[in-house]
Design a protein that fits this description.
There is one protein chain. By secondary structure, the protein is α+β, with helices and mostly antiparallel strands. Helix content is 17%, strand content 31%. It is built from 3 helices and 11 strands, in the order ααββββββββββαβ. The longest helix has 18 residues, at 14-31.
């Protein structure tokens, strides 16, 4: 029986795997124009000895109240009344992407006009519950959002309430 890595240039050892991963990271850093002096500033998740968690993403703590939408991860990051929240971009009614209305300080679904407060609480419309919140934690001047931990207020109210970072 042939070795599982035959033909790929690897010997199956951990050391060889790490050598390949290191080469890839250097290539990525080079393509992003990250010099050797800036490699140390990569998030702690990429530092030696720390596990890489692909189901988390980091954001800087917003400087002021308002909302930021990350379409790539379908996350809405909100700072509101000395707290930071991370929400699913989708309306809980029919999964339409929500929109932030800065002048009214609220979210609205463009499809059926459901409205939500900045903390995700339901105001009115066809939706029947609050916006879904991601688990979030603070680390220094960043918040980390766990993309695999989404809480619905009607399924796990305690976790939904706890999914906030107090400032």
């Amino acid at each position: 029986m042939s070795h599982p890595c035959s033909g790929c240039g690897g010997d199956g050892s951990r050391r060889n795997f790490l050598r390949h991963v290191s080469a890839i990271m250097v290539g990525v850093a080079g393509s992003l124009r990250i010099g050797p002096d800036r490699l140390a500033t990569l998030p702690v998740a990429f530092a030696p000895g720390h596990p890489v968690k692909l189901d988390e993403t980091a954001y800087p703590i917003p400087a002021e109240d308002g909302a930021t939408i990350d379409k790539a991860h379908e996350v809405i990051l909100v700072r509101y009344e000395k707290a930071v929240y991370a929400f699913s971009l989708s309306c809980p009614h029919q999964k339409t992407p929500l929109r932030w209305q800065a002048e009214a300080h609220q979210f609205q679904c463009p499809k059926h006009k459901s409205r939500f407060q900045p903390d995700g609480s339901f105001i009115d419309g066809r939706a029947t519950r609050d916006m879904d919140r991601y688990a979030i934690r603070r680390e220094g001047d960043q918040v980390w959002v766990s993309l695999d931990k989404l809480y619905r207020d009607d399924d796990n109210r305690e976790a939904w309430i706890a999914a906030a970072v107090k400032l």
